[in-house]
């Protein structure tokens, strides 16, 4: 089958009704498309469906339960992995005028307690396991089990049936604090980003007009991060397409086959892992040369306007459900090398740029207007400019209210109405944003040379046998720490030789002097970013 190829050039934004609030978004879907499947998810051994009308009814019932029990104007922590109940609690809390505090369930217990205290949460929705783990650490906090949610919804249904419209008629104040999201803290302690509905609505409207998902999706990224929540979930609700909720890595490949998504949103580490998995499997089965030849043919025909990638690359595409067209990439910079590799398989990597502080979308490539290696162009709700030192600055309706209980950090981040992202980059003549690294991660050598570790890491991670790598400064020179794959563990001489070859491609000032191997994975947050400050502590300790 030959697919139509669209020219890569500017075109009008997609048309979609604008939402006025998160409540308006749910009401619109429930009223206009009541029987459309909004969510699919595993429930025991079965796959359950939930319609747009059914979802809004569950949210309304739980919201009615909250108001009926006097839970008003409260900060409510939500500590659990991705699930359908998570989404019901999220919307019920915000739409009843409370503040939601999504927290990573995998954080150490002392950090969970710290965030509950710091956010001033008086209620927590969590699992039975985490409730027991918190124990007596938060005795003054009311704990509600997500396993009891069906009972709470049933009680809320009775409240609705009695004619109580407290929740249904609850006014939505878009400028009021709605959400406190803690940053991933890759370079230090996490901060509580304050977002209101106006921030979220601006980002959803802009993002939905920028991109067309063209069909069902699968939600993989954690909901307690804004990219996983707003872009890979809330925008899909607004688009009105079905989302399959993946509840854990162990189900990921099985969910791909059951969900058959056209679009999925991931982080660069997923891309590197999938690519390595496919290439290693081709080598083990003796099909590597055949695969490479097919990829060259695929790209050659595509360049001539002939798209046969779906049929030519059927075997590669099958593990992802067979229908995958777009992978939306956020969370960190992606090596452009992978864009061509996946394009040969009939999968476009649509890169974007965001920050928790910007709700999170800032810039994105589009279905048919994208630039290799870039993060795309600014979405319509915000503006970009590059400061004199190369830092990317953002201004717009999506920019946060500030950091919770941290005026100093707020003043440092928000400067004359602009959010200082901490990312270094530049804009090309067409407004496409290219990132070159993080300001805090820059290595400044004794001769004043600024070196971006991320740029070096992108090349290093293509070397055979390297699962992960981190570049850092040590005693005035550049070093790299490598976590090898299983087949290359302890092969110090091999990696030193590979790095010598890699150095030949670099300017003298950027060449790597020392290679260090580690036997365990790097510490990472749930966005799969390496926690550089934790690695630095390990090095200092040694």
Summary of the model, kept short:
With 542 residues, the protein is α/β, with parallel strands linked by helices.
Q: What would CATH call the architecture of the largest domain?
A: 3-Layer(aba) Sandwich
CATH level-four homologous superfamily name of the largest domain: ANL, N-terminal domain
Strand content: 15-25%
Helix content: 25-40%
Number of domains: 3
Count all strands and give the number. 26
What is the residue-averaged pLDDT?
A: 93
Low-confidence stretches: none
How would you portray this structure in words?
This protein is α/β, with parallel strands linked by helices. It folds into 3 domains: 1-10 and 197-436, 3-Layer(aba) Sandwich (Rossmann fold), CATH 3.40.50; 22-171, Rossmann fold (3-Layer(aba) Sandwich); 442-541, GMP Synthetase, Chain A, domain 3. Helix content is 35%, strand content 23%. Strands 2-1-10-9-11-12-13-14-15 form a 9-stranded mixed β-sheet, sandwiched between helices. Strands 16, 17, 19, 20 and 21 form a 5-stranded antiparallel β-sheet that branches. A 4-stranded parallel β-sheet has the order 4-3-5-6, sandwiched between helices. Helix 2 (52-68) packs across helix 6 (149-161) and helix 7 (197-210) crosses helix 8. The N and C termini lie far apart (58 Å). The model has no long low-confidence stretch (mean pLDDT 93).
């Amino acid at each position: 089958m030959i697919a139509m190829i669209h020219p890569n050039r500017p075109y009008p934004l997609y048309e979609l009704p604008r939402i006025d609030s998160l409540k308006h978004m749910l009401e619109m879907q429930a009223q206009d498309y009541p029987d459309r499947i909004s969510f699919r998810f595993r429930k025991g051994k079965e796959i359950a469906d939930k319609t747009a009308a059914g979802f809004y009814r569950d949210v309304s019932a739980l919201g009615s339960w909250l108001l009926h029990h006097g839970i008003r104007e409260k900060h409510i922590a939500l500590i659990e992995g991705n699930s359908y109940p998570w989404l019901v609690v999220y919307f019920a809390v915000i739409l009843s005028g409370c503040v939601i505090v999504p927290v990573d369930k995998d954080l150490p217990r002392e950090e969970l307690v710290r965030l509950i205290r710091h956010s001033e949460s008086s209620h927590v929705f969590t699992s039975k396991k985490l409730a027991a783990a918190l124990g007596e650490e938060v005795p003054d906090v009311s704990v509600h089990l997500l396993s009891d949610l069906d009972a709470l919804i049933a009680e809320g249904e009775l409240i609705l049936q009695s004619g109580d419209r407290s929740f249904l008629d609850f006014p939505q104040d878009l400028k009021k604090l709605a959400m406190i999201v803690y940053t991933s803290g890759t370079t230090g302690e996490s901060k509580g980003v304050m977002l209101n509905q106006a921030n979220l609505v601006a980002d959803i409207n802009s993002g939905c007009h920028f991109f067309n998902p063209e069909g069902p999706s699968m939600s993989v990224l954690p909901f307690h991060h804004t990219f996983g929540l707003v872009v890979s979930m809330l925008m899909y609700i607004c688009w009105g397409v079905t989302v399959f909720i993946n509840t854990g890595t162990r189900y990921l490949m099985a969910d791909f086959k059951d969900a058959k998504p056209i679009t999925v949103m991931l982080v660069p580490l997923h891309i590197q892992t999938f690519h390595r998995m496919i290439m290693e499997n081709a080598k083990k089965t003796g099909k590597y040369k055949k695969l490479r030849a097919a990829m060259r043919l695929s790209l050659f025909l595509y360049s001539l306007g002939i798209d046969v990638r779906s049929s030519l690359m059927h075997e590669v595409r099958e593990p992802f459900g067979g229908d995958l067209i777009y992978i939306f990439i956020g969370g960190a910079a992606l090596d452009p090398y992978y864009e061509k590799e996946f394009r040969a398989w009939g999968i476009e990597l649509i890169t974007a740029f965001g920050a928790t502080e910007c709700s999170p979308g800032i810039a994105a490539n589009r279905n048919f207007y994208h630039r290799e290696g870039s993060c795309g162009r600014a979405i319509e709700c915000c503006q970009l400019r590059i400061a004199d030192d190369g830092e990317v600055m953002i201004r717009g309706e999506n920019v946060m209210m500030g950091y919770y209980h941290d005026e100093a950090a707020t003043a440092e981040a928000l400067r004359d109405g602009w959010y200082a992202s901490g990312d270094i980059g530049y804009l090309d003549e067409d407004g496409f944003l290219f990132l070159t690294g993080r300001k805090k991660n820059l290595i400044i050598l004794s001769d004043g040379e600024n070196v971006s570790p991320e740029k070096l890491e992108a090349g290093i991670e293509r070397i055979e046998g390297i699962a992960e790598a981190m570049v850092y400064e040590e005693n005035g020179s550049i070093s790299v720490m490598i976590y090898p794959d299983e087949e290359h563990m302890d092969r110090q001489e091999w990696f030193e030789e590979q790095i010598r070859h890699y150095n030949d491609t670099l300017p003298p000032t950027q060449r790597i002097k020392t290679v260090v191997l580690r036997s365990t994975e790097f510490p990472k947050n749930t966005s799969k970013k390496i926690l550089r400050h934790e690695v630095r502590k390990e090095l200092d300790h040694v």
